[in-house]
Amino acid sequence: MQAFDYIKATSEVEVVSLLSRDGDQTRILSGGTDLLVQLREGRRQAKLLVDIKQVSEANELAYDPVGGLRLGAAVPCYRIGSDPTTARVYPGLVDAVSLIGGTQIQGRASLGGNLCNASPAADSIPALIVHHATCVITGPGGRRQVPVEDFCTAPGRTILQRGEFLVALHVLPPAPRFGAAYLRFIPRNEMDIAVVGVGASVVLDESLTTFVSARIALGAVAPTPLLVPEAGEYLAGRRISTETIAEAARIAQAATRPISDMRGTAAQRKHLAAVLTRRVLEKAIERARA
Amino acid sequence: MSKALVQSVINGEKIEFLCEPRQSLLEVLREVLGLTGTKEACNNGNCGACNVILDGVLVNSCLVLAIEVDGKSVTTIEGIAPPGGLHPLQEEFLNHAALQCGVCTPGFIVAAKALLDQNPHPTEHEVRRWLAGNLCRCTGYDKIVRAVLAAAERMKAGVRMEVK
Fold first, then answer.
1. Quick one: which of A202, A231, B6, B33 has the fewest CB in 10 Å?
2. How far is B51 from chain A (nearest CA, A)?
3. Domain layout of chain A by residue ranges
4. What is the pTM of this model?
5. Which fold has domain A5-51?
6. A107 → closest Cβ in B43, B58, B134
7. In this complex, is the C-beta atom of B129 within 8 Å of any C-beta atom belonging to chain A?
8. What is the model's pLDDT at position B139?
9. A56-171, what's its fold?
10. What percent of chain B has pLDDT over 70?
C-alpha cells in the first residue's frame, strides 16, 4: 500500500486544523472498509490519514425523544444494529444498516463512511433520507447542517468543502404513527451490492387509513441517491389503497434515471424501482400501524 | 516514512512492535510477528480468511491498520486453542472434515469463536448468516456449518476442555 502518515485525532478542532493544512492529500479514516481498499488499489491517494474514532462526537450513539438520534459518523454498523433503543425506534434504519457487508465489515464500517463514500448504491443513504436525517459538518468556518439528500453530488463526490468533515448524523424523533422501511434487490441472499434499493417512510392519521405525509428515496437508479418529493406529495392526504400505493410507485419509477451495468439493465432497474417502492411502502404502513 | 511503536495485547500477551502507518494488521501479524496462522487471500475485505477478534469484535485484519491496534487486544487463530490441546471448534472441524486446502479455516474458526462468545446457542440460520462474510472455495459450507453447530452443542453440554 502507498505510504502515508497516520494521526489519531481526539477533537474536532484538531481534525479541522489537520484538514486545513493539506486538505487534498488528507483523508478521514473511520472504519476503513472502503478507504483502505481504495488506497491499496490506487483509486485514491493520501499522504495523511486522520483517524476520527477517538473524536467523542464522531463515536456517539445516543437517543432522546426530543432531540432524536445523534449518530456519530464513525460509529460502526454493529453498534447501531445491536443497540436496543435504535432498533426499537428506527427499525427502518436498522433494515439498511444491517445489510452493509458481513459480520466482519459490520464490525468496522460506519454510516458516516457509507455516506462520504457516496456510492449511488449505498444502502444506508435512502434510509437516512426518508428518516429526515441531517449531516453535521464541521470546518474552518464552524458547523453547518445539511439534509442527507443534498450531501452527495455525484458518484464518489460530496458537498464537503476543503477543511470540512462529517462529524455526525442527526435523525429526528419519529412523529406519532410514523413507520419506515428499506428494501433492496440483490441476486442472492446476502453480501452483495444493491441492484436497486428503496427506502420509504410514512406518517398516518389517527384512523390509520390516510397518509399525513410520506417520503420515498431510491438507490442505484441515478448518479446519487434519489429523493422523490413528488411521490410523497402525491400520497399526503390520500387514503391508503392498492391504487394510491401503485401510483406512488409509478411516480417514483418515473423519477429514476438508471444505467445498465454488470448488476442489471436499466429496464430491470426501472421495473424493480416500482416493485420495491410498493413493497417498502406496505412495510412502512405496517410499522406505522403497529 | 518513520515507524511507529505500537503496544497491544495479542493472544493474551503484551506485545510491542514497530510498523509503518501504511501496514495492515494482517501484514504485521504475518511478517513482523510471525503469526502466520492468519491467512491473506483477497486482501480487500471480501473473503474473511484474515479474520481476527479486535477488542471482542470480529474484523478483517486486512482492513485494519496495525497502528490502529495500539492499546487494544487482538485474538488470532493462534490464541484459540488451550495449551497442548484444541478448541472444540477445531476438534469439530476435524471430526466433520470441514476443510480441504485449509486456507479459509483459520478465518472460519475465528469467526465462529466470535459468534459463540456472544451467542453460545446459535441456530443454523444464525450460523450461516454470521459466516456469510467467509468464503471457502473447496469444501463447501455445509460441513463447516455442521462443525460449528456440533461445537456449540458440545460446549453447551459441558463436554469441553478448559479454554482461556
1. B33
2. 7
3. 5-51, 56-171, 178-289
4. 0.94
5. 3.30.43
6. B58
7. yes
8. 76
9. 3.30.465
10. 96
> In Å, how far is A193's CA from the nearest CA of chain B?
12
Residue B21 has its nearest CB partner, among A6, A41, A78, at A6
Residues B25 and B67 in one domain: yes
Position B1 confidence tier, pLDDT thresholds 50, 70, 90: low
pLDDT of residue A24: 83
Q: Are A57 and A168 in contact (CB under 8 A)?
A: yes
Residue B107 located in a structural domain: yes
B59 with A104: Cβ contact below 8 A: yes
Is residue A80 a contact partner of residue A71, using CB atoms and an 8 Å limit? yes
**Residue that the C-alpha cell 478542532 belongs to:** A13
- Name the amino acid, one letter, at A120: P
Q: Mutating which of B2, B20, B22, B109 best tests the A interface, going by the most A Cβ atoms within 10 A?
A: B22
Strand pairing category for A26-29 and A48-51: parallel
pLDDT, tens digit, 9 for 90 and up, residues A48-84: 999 999 999 999 999 999 999 999 999 999 999 999 9
Query: What pLDDT score does B140 carry?
Result: 84
ipTM for the complex shown: 0.93
